[in-house]
Fold this protein.
Amino acid sequence: MGLYQFRLPDIGEGVAEAEIVAWHVQPGDVIAEDQSLVDVMTDKATVDMTSPVDGKVIAVHGAIGEMRAVGTVLVELEVAGAGNAADAAGQPADDPQPSPASPAAPLAAPVAPPPIAGFAAGTAPAFTTRSAGEAPLAAPATRCRAHELGIPLQYVPASGPGGRITPDDLERYIASGGLGAAGCMPRRAARDGMAETRIIGMRRKIAEKMEDAKSRIPHIGYVEECDLTELEALRGDLNSHRQEDQPKLTFLPFFIRALVRALPAFPKINAHFDDDAGVLREFAGVHVGVATQTPAGLMVPVIRHAETLDIWSCASELIRLSTAARDGSATREELSGSTITITSLGALGGIASTPIINRPEVAIIGPNKLVERPMVQSGQVTVRKMMNLSSSFDHRIVDGHDAALFVQQLKRSLEHPALLFMD
């Protein structure tokens, strides 16, 4: 029998390390060739590492959430034959002791809140209670003590003459833990305790990317109000007459078409800024990233060369990419390379938002919620379907004047949707 060391391979594109996000084997497992060993994450792509050989797992290296360098040992296997341990000379050193395959020990359950000061658990005696809606009666001293303890007197059963709350009634209520008599609302207990969650995997990647973008890019925000009454009417008509093989249209294909029309006049906005090298790279093709919420976190699948797509093709590509992002089948190429990003929460879009730029891009567009508002047209009040268009720009590259002109161009195309189909 020999020792086979499975090392983190070179995944390409300059990746030097990867994060362990899930183990599929443990020491003692007997595995077959092509069986899943471990999932690792690089940038925004999760890669399933499979075994190249049959064997028995002797040790695994690296805890979930740990970063491992390319070339370091992840799994040691006992295999038939000589194995490959003899070929490991000169390879990067590994952990002196193998790390457990299972995730870090589960966090302790939240600590139960302690009793409220002055309260003891118990069962309250049966007291005479007042009628519903009847104001509680009590002497000033009793009221003062109840106020100091934060006890609403309407919940304290009374045993005094005429339904008066006596000092003994208040003390019994305190001793009962605020339970009172049947039908009497208890005092709400304070909540205490804390739960900790380790931020790993996709959530950590998102956090790092957002922190990097926010700390390095001076954002300038711009919000414009758009009248989408005509666009909504067009969208509804197209959907009602679409063919069976055509997807249902959302607003996003129209927004992407508006970007395609506007960006040639604003080449600095369809660009990447390499601030380390001090170089702005302007792109002829429009590669639109669409921020998509998935079970694993926020991903940005990319519609490449959106300038070549009509409305229906764009809608089909949106569905294909968003589905791939949500089910985890999207490739690294489908999740990278955008030149400008759209982020939309649909019906949850709110009145306005402050989107964070997807670095190294220099702009991001955030459509908000479509609502009906009373508007004045030709001196008459009429109801229109309105949407605010939020946006952020890298102020190192895009001046406020150019940002406003760009958004106004988008607004014109969206408010007069016939322009979207004019070349």
Notes: Residues 101-127, 180-184 have pLDDT under 50 and may be disordered. The longest strand covers residues 363-377. The domain at 2-88 is CATH 2.40.50.100 (OB fold (Dihydrolipoamide Acetyltransferase, E2P)).
